[in-house]
Structures are given as structure tokens and as C-alpha cells.
Amino acid sequence: MPLYYAEPLEIVSGSGRRVTCSDGRTYLDFFGGVLTTMVGYAIPEITQAVERQLRTGVAHTSTLYLIRAQVELAEKIARLSGIPDARVFFTNSGTEANEAALLMATNHRRSNQILAVRNSYHGRSYAAMGITGHRGWSASSLNPLQVSWLHSGDRLRGLLSRLGDDEQVDAAVDDLREVLATQTAGDVAALIAEPVQGVGGFVAGPDGLLGALKKVLDETGILLISDEVQTGWGRTGDHFWGYQAHGVVPDLLTFAKGIGNGFALAGVVGRADVINQVPATSFSTFGGNPISTAAGNATLDYVLDHDLQANAARVGAILRDGLTEAVGDNPIVGEIRGRGLMLAIELVQPGTTVPDVPATLRVFEECRKGGLLVGKGGLYNNVLRMGPPLTLTEDEAREALEILVNAIREASAA
Fold first, then answer.
1. Family, per the entry (predicted)?
2. How many CA atoms lie within 13 A of 210 on its CB side?
């Protein structure tokens, strides 16, 4: 279990987009507990909803009893999912949500064969780890699934990176057909993919890629699972769900992180005929509990009522355009990428695409000195990840931009 920073921080309070640590300093938070504090800290509407539930004296009942907040939230998510006749199953984390989706898909197709994507991350449990294409997060080579791997959408390095967008989509389709023909027994259960790879460093293929792949999957009934743990709820700005950039509707969609704004809440939403393929008794003891779903309803209502998707697009553009203009040609900046308030900077050795981890650490620590908390990630741990609360203001974006630019310039001069 790693800790950030040479001198680790303890966060003791928060308000809006800022946190105060035990060292007495206040920081602008651009990572939100790994994109989880989606609306911000100490939001009255969310605090009040949780306090109302606490005052009832009921923190837990299990789903053996009706939970009104859970039913209400499930109806909202089903409606927003874009999946016809959708059903929802709540869990506590994205890992559990992906496990549930895998169970449903493999049962529906009567097959344990899964297509996954290189550089992906889907969780730390046994099956979720087995479909994670990222060696730094794979604690075991053992796997209950038969997994075949597709190319990622990495456009900085890799076999498909040298191609234009349309060519890359065509090559990815050809790759899928070859993988199906050579690495599988034919009766594949599902493809699971992140529209934007989170832990992988906010890597994304061209728009329309998943739609093109789905046409091939549909030829034999292979399901599509869209892992929206980090891309959901309007964070990408352009769309409410990441899959909507691809002209496709998934069969199953997993969600987590931001929907609870810090409370443990996740789940899977999908086609009724697929979700119902769990014949044995199954429920999640704490999944969708009264406290978490009270928070989830208030969080989702806040996102919609305040049109935070539009804010993510507007404020995210300030950050991306500002970074591109100020440091896009800096020798240690390999790529600035992302959309909305899901942004990344990949750092490399000057004049190459070779990952530069020491430079990344220098920028990371300089950001902290300047009063900004960011995340790290990527296959080589050389990517700065930024996923601030969707309520980020334009002034706060410009404040963070100045800190980031100064940190990159300081690190490149070292």
C-alpha cells in the first residue's frame, strides 16, 4: 500500500475543492481521492441528506428489506444509463461491480472467455485482476478466466500509435477479428473496456473505436461491458458516459467512485436478460445501504441540477488549452491528453517517448510545494493524473494551471 509524497500527507478537513492537512497547509485538490470526491468537500445538500438518514437511527438493513433511497437511485441510474429496460445491482466498489458484471456476462454466454484491453485496470480482486492489463497492478498470474488481449488506444507509443484515427480504428477491428480467430474457442462471453483508461494514465483510443468493435462482437452475440468507474457522471464533459463518444450502447455498464462523493457506492446497470442470469440467491450486504444511497441520490441530483457536465467541459478546456499553450512544447512533456476534468500529462526524456519517472516525481513534489495535489499513474508511472471535483471554478482552474506550469518548468530545468 503506497503513500504519496516523500513526506506523506494526512488530510484532516475539506471544503469545496480544497483540503487542509495535518501540516497546517491548505491545498487545491486535483485528485479527489482518486476521482471519488466528485462534487467536492462539505457540500450542504449531500451532508444534509446523510444527516437525515442518520437521524432515523438506521444505518443498515440489508437488501432483504426495501430501501427507498436504493430504489429511487436505481430508477435514476437505469434511466440515465441509455440501456433499454435496464436493471441495477449495487455493490460497494468498482472492483465488486466489475466482478458482478463478469458473473452476469459469463453466465449469460455460458463461457469464461473474456476479451480485455492492454494497459487496463478493473480492480484488485481475483477475476478483476485477471482482466487487468497492467503489470504494476497484477499481483498474481493465476486467473479463473480465459483472457485474450486487444491493443489499447495509446497514441504515444505502441503498434497502433503511428496510425491516424480512422486507420487506428480499422487496425483495431482487424486485430479483434484475428484475436477471435486465433486465441479463442469462439464462444467468447464479453469484451470489457474503459472508454478512457484510468489507472493506465487517461489513455483513450479514437472516438468511435468501441462502436466499431461492437459491430464485430454483435456478429456472434459477444457482450460489451463498459467500465465507467472513472468516466461516468459527466466527468469527460462531452458526454455523461464515456461510451457515448463511440456511437454504441453497452450491454452492461459498471459505475463507482464519484456517485457516492466519498461514500462507498458502486454497481452495475445493464440489460435485464443479462443481469438476471444469476440464478442463485445473491445480494451485497452493504451494497446500496441507506447511508450510501442517501448520499448517492443527493450527489446525482446535484450533478444534474447544476449541470456539472457542462462545467467539466468549460473548465477542463481552460486547463487543457492553457497547458498546451504554456508547456506543450516543453522537452519533458510527451503528451497532454484527456477530456473534460479528466486530464493527464505524460512526462518523457527530452526528444524521446522514453518514460521519465524522476521528472514525474519532481513535478509531483513541486505541485505540492505550490499548493496543488495531483495523482500519478500510467503503465510506467510517468503520468500526472488530474480529476478534480466537477464543481471546480474557472478561477481555481487558472490557479492550478499556474502551479502546474511552474512545476513543469522547474522540473525540466533541473
1. Belongs to the class-III pyridoxal-phosphate-dependent aminotransferase family.
2. 28
